[in-house]
Amino acid sequence: MENVHKHIEHSVLRRKKGDLIFPTDFRSKGTQAAVKTALSRLSKKGKLKRLAHGIYYVPKIDPLFGAIYPVPEEVAEAIAKKEKVRIKPAGAYALHRLGLTTQVPTKLVYITDGENRQIKIGKTTIKFKATTPKKMALEGQLSSLVILALDELKSINIDGVTERKIKEILQKENPGQLKRNLSLTSGHVHDYIIKLISVR
User: Is the pLDDT of residue 103 over 80?
Assistant: First the structure.
């Protein structure tokens, strides 16, 4: 077990400040229990910080702002890559990714073909919501994000200014891509978008 600890400690010391570390990074170096113990010991020494269950990071200290948390979006992408699942922004976070809101949501919602999961990073929460293969089949960076935003928020929560911006975005989408994505969405979102793009 001591050899496992030394290997992990040396590996951690070579990492950049802020790098994310998962127990599975060291799966070939020892048993699950040995790796877990080593990471726990390094956390107690302050050489690692525990971000959430099964997720650690190398501490990063800013002279002015103090301890810096990893960027939530990067954490979400790293988890998806590590667990070999797909994720797509949804709800208010999808609107933000489209540039329709300037305020960064405190909850970043992603749909996923993986499992439900929620992680707290400082004041921000990352939420993975397991969804259907149909929703994960949405493609592109325009109409797919609009659809996933509307599906989560419901159209009743969209104001007139945002509606006009959504319409402008949809008008930039490839018609074939939009048609395909609309065939995959729910009835109320389909009808809302058709009505919106039909208004002159």
Answer: no
CA distance linking residue 7 with residue 40, whole number of Å:
14
DSSP secondary structure letters along 10-66: HHHHHSPTT-EE-GGGGGGGS-HHHHHHHHHHHHHHTSSEEEETTEEE---EETTTE
**Stated pTM of the model:** 0.84
List the one residue out of 162, 134, 165, 168 whose CA is nearest residue 148: 134
Beta-sheet strands, E only, within 124-184: 124-130
**Residue 132 above 60 pLDDT?**
yes
What domains does the chain contain, in order, with CATH numbers?
2-62 (1.10.10.10), 72-198 (no CATH)
- pLDDT tens, position by position, 145-182: 999 988 877 665 678 888 889 999 999 999 999 999 99
